[in-house]
Amino acid sequence: MKTFFKLLFAFSLGLAIAGCAKYDDTELRGKVDSLTSEVNTLKANQQAMQAVIDVWKAGGYVASIDDSVPGQHTITFYGDKGKTVVIYDGVDGEDGVDGEDGVDGEDGDTFFKDVTSDEDGVTFVKQDDTEIFIPFAKAFKLVIENPEAEVEAGAKAEFSYKVENANSTTSVDVFASGNYAAVVDAEASKIVVTAPTPAVNGSVLAWAQNDEGLFSMRKLNFIVKAETTVTTTEEAYQAIPATSGTFEVDVVSNIDIEVEKPSVDWVTVAVTKADYKLTLTLAENTTGEPREATINILRADNKKQVQSIKIVQLAAVEKVLTLERKWGWYSSADALWTAKMTAISISHPDGYGMARALAMDDNYIYLPKSSGYAAVGAVSIADATKQVKGNVTGISGGTTFVTSFARVIKNTSETVNGGKDILLVCNLTETNSDANKLQVYAYENGIEAAPKMIAAFCWDSANTTNDWRRYGDRFFVTGTYQDGKLYFPSYHANKTVVLSIANGARTSVTQIAAGAENSPEGIKDVTVYPGDTKLFLTNITIANQVASTGGKSNGWDEYSLTASSEKGKGTFGYNFFEFNEKKYIAYARIDGGNKAWVEVIEDKGDLLQSLSAQEGLMKSPIHDATKLDAESATGNLADCCVRVVKDTAYIAALTRDGGLIVDKLYMKAKEAASDPK
Fold this sequence. Notes:
Elements (H helix, E strand, L loop, with lengths): L1 H19 L5 H32 L4 E5 L5 E6 L6 E5 L23 E6 L3 E6 L4 E5 L5 E4 L3 E4 L4 E9 L6 E6 L4 E5 L4 E5 L7 E8 L5 E10 L3 E3 L3 H4 L7 E9 L3 E3 L7 E7 L2 E7 L8 E9 L5 E9 L5 E12 L28 E2 L3 E5 L7 E5 L6 E3 L11 E9 L12 E7 L9 E6 L8 E6 L18 E4 L4 E6 L5 E8 L2 E9 L11 E4 L6 E4 L4 E9 L5 E8 L6 E9 L2 E9 L5 E7 L4 H7 L4 E4 L16 E8 L2 E8 L3 E11 L8
Parallel strand pairs: 8-14, 34-38
Antiparallel strand pairs: 1-2, 2-3, 4-5, 5-6, 7-9, 9-12, 10-13, 11-12, 13-14, 15-16, 16-19, 17-20, 18-19, 20-21, 22-45, 23-24, 24-25, 25-26, 27-28, 28-29, 29-30, 31-32, 32-33, 33-34, 35-36, 36-37, 37-38, 39-40, 40-41, 41-42, 43-44, 44-45
């Protein structure tokens, strides 16, 4: 009030003087403006103090304080009860004029003498030194750790929660979708979610709110729990061969999966869905050491890892070509090897049964019964106890053997025998009688179905001298079932008959005269080198190569001797095949003492040259399993067939009364043998 009365007095005196003379009121006006500003500041501080007290009583919070403007503090309170206020520092009064008492001379008026802040909040110091402390606000926030979970059908999942900066009016609620159910256990501060049956991906919304209008929401996500299993055995994918190529790993999964790109450059992975198959493509391991890589299997929906497998590619090892016995049946003084044919019971009482010939495809060895009645048996290459009796309906004829010889011919038609190669069987005739003519049969639907006769022919009236003496002992096949030739040598004469077929039907028959005309045994086997037109005729004492010299007057051909081979004598059943990127020749041999074995040599591009060189020669006894010199005497006929299946060449051979054997030719690790599957 003192200041107020002084102001009134000064104002009255000014008016009196103004009434007498012109008066300069600039100074007075300045003091009025200053007073007005002081009053406004006072009002603002009073309002600010009231706001501070209201927030403090309500348990409110300071959101921020700004002291950047000298002489004032800008404070923003948190929540809908909050607002921004400015608190001004007090101002000192000015000195008096002309010896009069000083005007506004006390400290500037303010309700707070000090305002300070630290990391916890703001302290307001009143004039009487009492303090009001209002803390800084923490964000209003619903906190749920790990808001994503994998679920199974009908399973419950619990989520603990807390609400930061909550007050007594704070509540938490939920909303579930995708057939999920959810409840809030406020007492335990938990959200309990139940998955549907069957389990599907889904979500639950959870939120917190209070009466100040604060709101915070979180989303809980649920995905079906992965059930992913690698069904390929660990031993398989941790021992992958060093050679380049592909390897498959089977996976069963209830979710869509994908594969993370491996961190190494020597393996790539492709995924096919049905179920799931991982196809690994590996480069050849030339490092000299085993190497490994990790294949990570991921969920397709969120890319999280669900499975990890370690693959190991073995180091390359030196391998050598090996001829090794798979199984064998051997005759003894007490029993013939044919006694092993227990499942089909077609042994022969005269001791010759099944001793003359065999044929082979990828699965079976086929044995025609060289006897007075028709029979064909099959023995599994993989398991000799697995035997099948062939259907011989319609097979007849043959003055010596009804089913004498057999060979498998290549088939190029998917509509015949399911695209598989076809077994051919012939009888054996020793007369030129039309009733006993040479006949050839084809098993177009496997050996358990009746065969089809594809050719029957007999002697020509222009060539009556023993022209048909014992044809059908053996034959040699070239070409295919759709376009091929069958060569039948005469057992007792220097004659060979050539039967041409097309799509399993006879097209022509040609007889050629060739061979050792003075030999009492005639020709026991005939061979045609691939791509050649010359015949190679053998028995125990001869191995002659003959070539055509032109046709005879009746249209038949005549051949003459072009070369002989000492190494070819006593050889039977020639096979020309490719294996491990090289060409080979395999055949059976009988020595002068009637001992028999298999020989395998490298093919040098010419039959006689290859026989002479004997390069890479490998031998395997037919009668005994291990030693050539342990063989017992055998008959004077042998046969041999070869079939290449994947990385193994199977060689089957037999001799009359001696034995039936299956050898395998494969690349074997030099350090440690491992039998190919």
